[in-house]
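Annual report, structural modelling task.

Input specification for the glutamine complex:
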Amino acid sequence: ATVEEYLAAIEAKKHLNAFVEVYADEARARAKELDASTAPKGKLHGVVIGIKDVICHKGHKVTAASKILEGFTAVFSATAVERLLAEGAIIIGRLNCDEFAMGSTNENSVYGKVLNAADETRISGGSSGGSAVAVQAGLCMASLGSDTGGSVRQPADFCGIVGLKPTYGRISRYGLIAYASSFDQIGIFSQNIPDAALLLEVIAGPDEYDSTVSLKPVPQYSKELKKEQKSYKIAYFPEALNHESLDPEIGAAIKNKLEEWQTQGHTVAPVTFDLLDYIVPAYYILTTAEAASNLSRYDGVKYGYRHPVQNDADLDIFYKNNRSAGFGWEVKRRIMLGNFVLSSGYYDAYFTQAQKVRKLLTNKLTLIFNDFDFICMPTAPSVAFKIGEKMTDPISMYIADIYTVMANLTGVPGIALPLFQHSRYHMPFGLQLMSSHFNELPLLSFSHNIL
Ligand code: GLN
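The model returned the following structure:
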């Protein structure tokens, strides 16, 4: 589709609230410029992409869907954005999300909720809800989100599209507004696997501005995607597929798929997994701790929102006014939780314990990946919730991250694949595959075969 067609679609689907800002004139001008250019065409020549409002794009506003960054304009571009532009992509706008990427429904946004295009009485998922719906509703060809504990895979699952969270350290986080730095990774939303492969190959790889990016060479995923049938070894956790929180139809669909793979010649085997009940608590302890520290920079002094009533005589009150009015409830809850688990009296009981869980889990996954190519799991325990359904019950909202946080706790890549339709709710859902670190290529190849 052309820029004009996407702009018309964005206008027609405005009520979904996926975009918080559309760069209509800029996108038109860039399309013209690309058309007129005689330079060799980039890999993404004219490809229309949207980016989540946590990714910096020089000269454009970026707010992490928070009042505290109201009016802030990015002074540099994220490495991922630079690389998209260098290959000829057209960035069409900034996409809605949960405030500082904290949430699972996109209801914690200063811009309001995003509607799921498959059923507008349901949420998009989150935190990258705008990024998911923009691709779902055909408002751009692909989009970038961020995934700290499932924020790309879960909304992709809820919207019936592909969501890829690469290995931690595959894509530079330079210019990505931090939530929990040792978990955060930029991820990709697309309609199909070749698009995801192409975007990944463009944005991945070493970056002098982020020392946590691996120096491993980046495969030409889009060219090396293999269509031919290879037999893979796939592990699954019976505990995950029989979990009490899982919608039985989702469990049954995945079990059927596993059987189908087995009859196709893949090796499919159960692996005992006894850490399931520990991973969500460990995730929320560690991420809130990192978030409390990362978000301490938003004090109203350097950038963003400043409360109109100021008491110049007392710096503490000045900070308190700015932060009290600037942050939303979910972010405040997490800052408090994070400071609590890091406080001297409780550090060992919470933070240290959670780190141990993270280590145990990493060791467990290493062992599994010695014997298997992939782990197959649900992406989410249910289809997209109804608007407001979980807003009053944060714990049940957190528990719903049970299947996605594992990949971020351990750093392995995960992909959500849209394969099914729920017979009762008429909503899409799929399954999730994870591979060992930096094995995105087999992950994408197998995904390509089954999608
Ligand atoms: N729902 C998870 C959370 O609220 C995941 C968020 C994310 O991946 N950014 O922390």
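The radius of gyration is 21 Å.
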